[in-house]
Write a structure and sequence with these properties.
elongated; conserved putative lor/sdh protein from methanococcus maripaludis s2 fold; alpha/beta; 14 helices; single chain; 3 domains; Alpha-Beta Plaits
Length: 411
């Protein structure tokens, strides 16, 4: 709709728009894009779990500016009141979307078809939406095939934001920012409760995304305890964690340093290569465990306790180990398939793998990121994984305290 001096659109938002700060975000987005607004109707829920709703009249100087506003506030769940069905355009080539494709977020999304709203399957950020015989679903750009019907534009698409308390639970009161001064004892207790709850109820899987610092700091035994206890269902890592874990099992070192006394081993710089070579000669990590070559460590416990692991490689990898997936797109596909039943993800001391997995997880999966570097958690949030709780601390005391809390809860 337009008037003599401006373009006018009316949108509606509903849900926990007050306590999740959705309403102020929408209003701020409008004004930041040189638009104006008028709240024509608002209803605020009285109880903690009651939803609220608001109808907002938006004015912008040009159609282009209005479309920019509508596109941005749609990610917060704002839907035009003059709803229409989504628009489908066939992909004109393999491996790319039509130019005007709808870019997804990690929050629950629906599209309108034949006057009905339909939930999108396989929710993931930074994808498009394809509509095929099985219904609408998220699809990564690399999987697009010519002729696929792809959702374009924002018309007929709505986002249903997840309330912060749904993914944060008792963490909500400290959900703003990343700080070294958060009460880590209380946070670790809550993480332990999530691990115990997943194991007892078997309603969701626990994923650990780990970096080599777990081994370097002498924390591998703590991870091994969690795996043996049934608190870990899946492990994502790179070549480094597995290599140095196996190096520690074979030589008692990590990067050539004895973990027992921190002394440097003679020719210790060769140990990681010799560990990789040993596994390559066995054919796989599983074969090395089954044959008795590897007798301890994280990878040993994963094999023995049937914990699925995916090792994704990088350009700097030595070897790599035979289990490492060196094709980045194939690694993404396997991780994407493996996270479907994950309800809790614990990321420990790995920036690249944490960001990669964060990109794949929907917003309703609880995520905790533990790193000595606050930039890791900040980067996750900046990339859109807003549900991430960050704990800035060293790996070893964190894992030691976590194991103790889990043991106390199981007594």
């Amino acid at each position: 709709m337009s008037t003599k001096d401006s373009i006018v659109e009316e949108v509606e938002i509903a849900g926990h728009i007050i306590d999740s700060l959705i309403l102020p975000k929408v209003l701020d987005t409008i004004t930041a894009n040189s638009g104006t607004f008028k709240i024509s109707k608002i209803a605020i829920g009285q109880a903690r779990h009651d939803p609220s709703s608001a109808v907002i009249e938006i004015r912008a100087a040009t159609p282009e500016r209005m479309q920019k506003i509508l596109a941005q506030i749609a990610d917060h769940g704002a839907v035009p009141t003059n709803t229409q069905d989504c628009r489908l355009v066939e992909a004109d080539m393999d491996g790319a979307f039509p130019e005007s494709f709808y870019s997804t977020t990690n929050q629950q999304t629906e599209i309108r078809m034949d006057g009905k709203w339909i939930a999108i399957a396989l929710q993931e950020m930074d994808c498009g939406i394809v509509v095929d015989a099985s219904g609408p679903r998220c699809i990564p750009m690399t999987d697009v095939q010519k002729g696929m019907p792809i959702v374009t534009g924002h018309a007929g698409v709505r986002v249903i934001p997840v309330e912060r308390t749904q993914v944060r639970g008792d963490f909500t009161f400290m959900s703003s920012g990343v700080s070294t001064e958060k009460p880590k004892g209380a946070l670790i207790q809550e993480i332990a409760r999530d691990l115990v709850r997943n194991r007892r109820n078997n309603t969701g899987k626990t994923l650990i995304v780990g970096g080599p610092a777990i081994v370097h700091t002498g924390s591998a035994p703590a991870i091994c305890q969690l795996i043996r206890g049934g608190y870990v269902n899946k492990l994502f890592a790179g070549n480094a964690l597995a290599t140095h874990d196996i190096e520690q099992s074979l030589f008692g070192t990590s990067l050539g340093v004895h973990l027992a006394d921190a002394s440097i081993a003679e020719a210790g710089h060769e140990h990681h290569l010799r560990a990789i070579n040993k596994i390559r000669r066995c054919g796989s990590i599983r074969a090395a465990v089954d044959s008795g070559v590897v007798k301890s460590g994280i990878m040993f416990e994963c094999v023995r306790n049937k914990v699925d692991f995916i090792l994704a490689g990088s350009i700097r990898d030595d070897g790599p180990l035979p289990d490492v997936i060196t094709d980045t797109l194939e690694a993404q596909r396997q991780m994407r398939d493996a996270i479907r039943d994950v309800s809790f993800c614990l990321m420990i001391a790995t920036m690249l793998h944490s960001v990669a997995v964060g990109n794949l997880l929907p917003a309703w999966v609880k995520v905790v990121c533990v790193d000595i570097n606050p930039s890791t958690v900040i980067k996750l949030s900046d990339r859109g994984s807003f549900q991430t709780l960050g704990i800035v601390t060293d790996v070893e005391p964190f894992l030691r305290a976590l194991v103790q809390e889990v043991q106390l809860m199981e007594m």
